[in-house]
Design goal:
This protein has 235 residues and is an alpha/beta fold. The protein is 21% helix and 20% strand. It has 2 domains: 75 residues, ACT domain (Alpha-Beta Plaits, 2-Layer Sandwich), CATH 3.30.70.260; 141 residues, no CATH class.
């Protein structure tokens, strides 16, 4: 159980349960419902459907029983608003937190360092990257689509904004928001600012392909990343 559920009482909405697919997903969902959960949504957590996520609401008194289910690996609160996917988290990772408080102005911090990722090409090896995302599309320098994956563009995210797009934003999203304009949290931190917003993206979508490991083996990840000019990737 994640710490963000600790101390809660009564009915808790927006609880995400991450569980293993033992061949009987419906059975695991039924076990959650037997503990009093109202399951709102169930979906595969990754393309091979080895793991699933159930979003539910339930009484906090049943949390201990949920943690004892063999198939459940983790569960926590799914915040309805974005949390720590913003400049505050990036400042923390970058170490710019004088007095233990993340500073506003990550771009200023990068300017003082003299480095924002410009000139570096990195491969996102995941479900792919959404070419239409305003935080990322200006930095996509190329990509590679694995056999069987959608290939509208090389390395396209078949989900149109799935896990690979999220990971790419963590690495170097520019914080442009939804394209209409940048968004900030209540403290003024920009949502969507990644660690190195000046970097170039090489998109790879092996997790959207039907074969796993990819055809050619694990080394195909590094091979295609290097051929695409990337210095590395999240392989």
């Amino acid at each position: 159980m994640n710490s963000d559920l600790a101390g809660r009482s009564g009915l808790v909405k927006n609880v995400d349960v991450f569980f293993y697919n033992d061949g009987n997903v419906a059975g695991t969902v039924a076990a959650l419902e037997a503990l009093g959960a109202k399951v709102n949504q169930v979906y595969a957590a990754q393309p091979d459907k080895a793991f699933y996520i159930a979003n539910m609401e339930m009484n906090a008194s049943a949390f201990d029983a949920v943690s004892l289910l063999n198939e459940v690996l983790w569960f926590g609160y799914a915040h309805p608003e974005p949390v720590l996917d913003d400049e505050m988290a990036t400042q923390t990772v970058a170490g710019n937190h004088p007095g233990g408080v993340p500073a506003l102005g990550y771009y200023t911090h990068l300017a003082n360092l003299g480095f924002d990722g410009t000139g570096v090409r990195w491969a996102t090896i995941d479900t792919g990257v959404d070419y239409d995302h305003p935080d990322l599309n200006g930095h996509i320098a190329g990509g590679y689509s694995f056999p069987g994956a959608c290939n509208t563009n090389p390395g396209e995210d078949c989900a149109g904004g799935g896990h690979g797009t999220h990971v790419t934003g963590i690495i170097g999203g520019t914080g442009q928001g939804d394209g209409v304009g940048a968004n900030t949290d209540p403290n003024g931190y920009l949502y969507g600012v990644g660690i190195a917003p000046g970097y170039e993206i090489f998109a790879m979508n092996s997790l959207s392909a039907p074969a796993w490991p990819p055809a050619g083996g694990w080394q195909e990840h590094s091979k295609q990343a290097v051929l695409g000019g990337a210095i590395g990737g999240n392989n």
